[in-house]
Specification:
Blueprint lengths: L2 H28 L4 H18 L7 E2 L2 H14 L1 H20 L11 H19 L4 E2 L2 E2 L2 H24 L5 H16 L6 H4 L18 H33 L5 H17 L6 E2 L1 H9 L5 H22 L4 H15 L3 H4 L6 H16 L2 H22 L2 E6 L5 E9 L4 H6 L9 E11 L2 H16 L3 E5 L3 H10 L5
Parallel strand pairs: 6-7, 7-8
Antiparallel strand pairs: 1-4, 2-3, 5-6
Helix pairs in contact: 1-2, 1-3, 1-11, 1-12, 2-10, 2-12, 3-4, 3-9, 4-9, 4-10, 5-13, 5-15, 5-16, 6-7, 6-13, 9-10, 9-11, 11-13, 15-16
Length: 481
């Protein structure tokens, strides 16, 4: 590795680690867990996925999407059941990767990707507003003005420093610079230590203290499946985005397997479950992190914070981290999608807006599922509308129908409406040279058409079926000659 790449990865990893800490603490608190569980999970998952995953430069950790999924489980059954859920969820992720199902991410249309990115950018920005509270009340007066001023200063450094020098990642310079200013001037503002104390020891391996029974499996399995699906989905979508930014290709199956293994280890060592984190990934990439070392450094630094550096890290002002995350939200949002809303087809614009809104108000899995369903229904509708027939009379008085398009569940009615069994001559030919049969609905439609002509006392001959269509009809027991 070249020395400049080595330096860039180390600095990017250090910057990312500062951004990981408050996020992991916040997500652990959301899930009613000890903040150290979030930090241990971030250390283990970030390090292992960086070492063995399929996408260098991508950062994984104890993600908020996972925290939301398991809140109810923790409240009802306790932390030990959560650890069992993380273990089972990890096994599901490993199986997903070993079965090479990562390619399913190709089923996600680009408008869904845009909605996913926009929704997460909004979530990242909205999550920072919690730092403008003091207990249950919003900040006001001098504390509010000081917080806003420090956030603005942080954002100004991140935006303006690259115009002067690129020797240091601007986010790192902003965090350290604002933190040093707050300490030297003795400014009374919230720091990371106000969220939680992060000092701790090395994580210790232990199996979850739960009854290993079918009853326990029935409790944790639904949460484990949901956790695995949400984690895999967010990871694969983040991997796609990272591929686009770096103009390189990752390996989704390897990433899924590595993420599952990392979750297994995290569960064994008392950590939260996790997946790819788009905000921290964007910080890493914008700071120059492209190799595996950046993720390893980020993970290792989190452990060092817990073991040795907690007094220093707890002095970092939250305003500096909030400012960096606001910049990340601005850079993550696909602003170009707003400019093309009136230029792309209406259905694609609807998908972008719908996925964005659903991501913000529900969760990522629901949003992407809604987007895929909308896109699939629109595709089916468009394909059904494109089916048409050319007809003409032959010299012997018979009639020829030459169909064009795709015959499947959504186009069977338009297909049958092309024909006129009552008015057609005794001999009718259906040319399928340009017609594709896709599913059993297509076979049923052809069978229905034959029956209609037979009932009218006429003969339908079918020509130029593809080999695949012949096999479909043969398996269904439908005559096609």
């Amino acid at each position: 590795m070249k020395s400049k790449h080595l330096r860039a990865d180390v600095l990017a990893g250090l910057t990312t680690s500062f951004a990981l800490v408050p996020e992991c603490i916040a997500f652990a608190l959301v899930a009613h867990l000890n903040p150290l569980m979030g930090l241990y999970g971030a250390f283990i998952i970030c390090t292992l996925t960086a070492l063995f995953g399929g996408r260098p430069g991508m950062v994984s950790g104890a993600a908020g999407s996972m925290a939301v999924v398991i809140v109810a489980l923790v409240v009802q059954h306790g932390v030990q059941y959560l650890l069992a859920t993380v273990l089972l969820g990890g096994l599901i992720m490993v199986a997903f990767g070993l079965l090479r199902l990562g390619k399913l991410v190709r089923m996600v249309p680009h408008p869904v990707m845009l909605g996913f990115v926009n929704g997460l950018a909004i979530i990242i920005a909205l999550a920072q507003l919690e730092h403008f509270r003091d207990g249950e009340a919003w900040l006001s007066g001098t504390p509010l003005y000081l917080m806003l001023g420090l956030v603005a200063l942080t954002m100004a450094i991140v935006y303006l420093l690259p115009r002067l020098t690129r020797a240091v990642p601007p986010a790192l310079a902003a965090i350290l610079g604002v933190g040093l200013a707050v300490w030297l001037l003795g400014l009374p503002t919230h720091t990371l230590g106000d969220m939680a104390h992060i000092a701790g020891g090395l994580p210790v391996p232990a199996l979850p203290d739960v009854p290993w029974s079918l009853e326990t499996l029935a409790i944790v399995a639904p949460y484990a499946v949901l956790m695995a699906l949400v984690g895999l989905l967010e990871t694969l979508l983040t991997l796609n985005l990272t591929d686009e930014i770096t103009e390189s290709r990752g390996y989704p199956d390897r990433e899924c397997a590595a993420l599952g293994a990392a979750n297994l280890v995290s569960g064994l060592f008392g950590g939260m479950g996790g997946c790819a984190m788009i905000g921290q990934t964007m910080i890493n990439l914008s700071s120059g992190g492209r190799g595996r070392l950046s993720g390893v450094v980020a993970g290792a630094m989190i452990l060092l914070f817990v073991l040795f550096l907690s007094p220093l890290i707890e002095r970092i002002p939250l305003a500096a981290l909030v400012g960096v995350m606001f910049v990340v939200a601005q850079q993550t949002f696909a602003w170009a999608s707003l400019r093309v809303l009136d230029k792309v087809p209406l259905n694609d614009a609807l998908v972008i807006v719908a996925v964005t809104i659903v991501t913000v108000f529900t969760d990522l899995a629901t949003a992407v599922l809604c987007g895929i369903v909308i896109a699939a229904l629109n595709f089916a509708w468009q394909q059904a509308r494109e089916l048409y027939a050319d007809t003409h009379r032959e010299a012997d008085g018979s009639k020829l129908y030459r169909l064009h398009g795709t015959l499947f569940f959504a186009s069977t009615t338009p297909f049958l409406n092309q024909f006129d069994p009552a008015g057609d001559p005794p001999q009718v030919t259906l040319d399928c040279r340009h017609l594709s049969f896709v599913d059993y609905s297509a076979i049923a439609a052809l069978k229905t058409l034959r029956e209609r002509y037979a009932k009218a006392g006429k003969h339908l001959r079918v020509l130029h079926l593809s080999e695949r269509c012949r096999q479909l009809l043969k398996r269904a027991g439908v005559q096609h000659e």
